[in-house]
């Protein structure tokens, strides 16, 4: 597929896809005419890059961890993963991600409790309203 097709299927602008190529985190095939072409796996790669960026990783960090993430998906040997240049930075990002997960889980539970309480109220409300006379029209 061409860059415009990949952009349409991922919601990522072609300019950004070219940037990903420039920084070494997306690798298109080049045709004899020099045009970029992408295989179906590029869709997942772009979505994964977006998720890692949203999680706070830099493109440098992403470039370092992508080979290991690929090895982990395929359940292959990860001993060939390059040594990370900034392990402390990756550890900080992991800690930040874990904190956000905790906050999201607490918020999810609070919303679930609220929705449950609203559902309980909706069930109880019609029964109590049936015995209450309607106010007079004025």
Please give the largest β-sheet: 2 strands, antiparallel
Read across the widest sheet, the strand sequence of neighbours is 1-2
Termini separation comes to 69 Å
Radius of gyration: 25 Å
Q: What is the number of beta strands?
A: 2
Polypeptide structure, described:
The protein is 65% helix and 3% strand. A hairpin with a 5-residue loop joins strand 1 (29-30) and strand 2 (36-37). It is flat. It has 138 residues and is mainly α. The termini are far apart. A two-stranded antiparallel ribbon has the order 1-2.
Give me some keywords for this one.
138 residues, 2 strands, two-stranded antiparallel ribbon, mainly alpha, single chain
What is the topological layout?
Elements: H1 3-10, H2 14-22, E1 29-30, E2 36-37, H3 41-54, H4 59-73, H5 87-130
Antiparallel strand pairs: 1-2
Outline of this structure?
It is built from five helices and two strands. The chain has helices at 3-10, 14-22, 41-54, 59-73, 87-130; strands spanning 29-30, 36-37.
